Amino acid sequence: MSTLTVPPALTSARDDAIQMHRAFKGLGCDTGTVVNILAHRNSTQRTLISQEYRTMYSEDLENRLSSELGGDLKKAVLLWMPDPARRDATILKQALSGTIVHVRAATEVICSRTPSMIQQMKQVYHALFGVYLEHDIESRSSGDHKKLLLAYVGTPRCEGPEVDRVMVENDAKILYKAGEKRLGTDEKTFICIFSERSWAHLAAVNSTYRGMFRNPLKKAVKKETSGNFEFALLTILCCAENAGKYFAKVLYKAMKGLGTDETTLTRIIVTRAEIDMQYIKAEYLKKYRKSLNDAVHSETSGYYRSFLLGLLGPNH
């Protein structure tokens, strides 16, 4: 469930565009107005505002936002503006480009998205950057991690809740034989099952595995694999089991200890606000005995804080 709160008496996209233009005029930017509008408009509404702004002022709204805002707020707002598929494609391109490759960020985006999201993301990626996502994965990752990512973006999977109990038990046994039962690990089997099975199926395999072998599948993955390959497998498994719990943990780690990982904090809140942030907030409170809103409030400041809290909705 989304945490985005849109005003009941919503102004038109044209009026929003006019308000935005006024906020940019003169010395300095009326950042409060910009935040108050954009943090309370859904994806479709933001697209309409951008279209109206271009029509009225012959200027790209995202370019203007980029020149008017700064720091973490600018990064958050610019990430918020596109529709989900373009946003994910942009995150992936940035993560897989440049001198420093942010493999974990790319892996998280790929392995936490549904098959339909991945298909849309791949199409937009090619349309925007003139290269296939698979090409960039091929050139910027390696080993079993690369094989898993390529299989995951290239294999159609069911998104429904249906599971075949016989197949579930069979997969649990196969994974045990491929990992804990033998010397060394049959990575190919892990890649095959984790990339070809639905989330509902993998969640059932996880439960069955524990019942059969008195050990969580997650523990087996940690024992039998390592590095980015392990991270990818665990991301798939954790999202299959409970995506809200997975993202709550990622957010907690981003704010834990000295300093805050604003890049991760921004990415998770912006990408999940219109999908399942309500569940993430519930899991965060349950696990860490503190509301996500309070945690974000204590770790951020200024308009960046206001913007993120706007996306998170009321602190119930």
Q: How would you describe this structure in keywords?
A:
316 residues, mainly alpha, 19 helices
- What's the helix-strand series? HHHHHHHHHHHHHHHHHHH
**Class by SSE composition:** mainly alpha
Number of helices: 19
Strand content: under 5%
Biggest β-sheet, characterized?
Answer: none
Rounded to an integer, what's the Rg over CA atoms? Answer: 21 Å
Query: How far apart lie the N and C ends?
Result: 14 Å
In terms of per-residue confidence, which ranges show pLDDT below 50 for 5 or more consecutive residues? none
Helix-residue proportion: over 70%
The general outline is elongated
| Average of the residue pLDDT scores | 95
Task: Describe the fold and architecture.
- The protein is mainly α and 316 residues long.
- 72% of the residues lie in helices and 0% in strands.
- It contains 19 helices and no strands.
- The radius of gyration is 21 Å and the shape is elongated.
- It starts with 12 loop residues before the first helix and ends with a helix.
- 39% of the residues are buried.
- The model has no long low-confidence stretch (mean pLDDT 95).
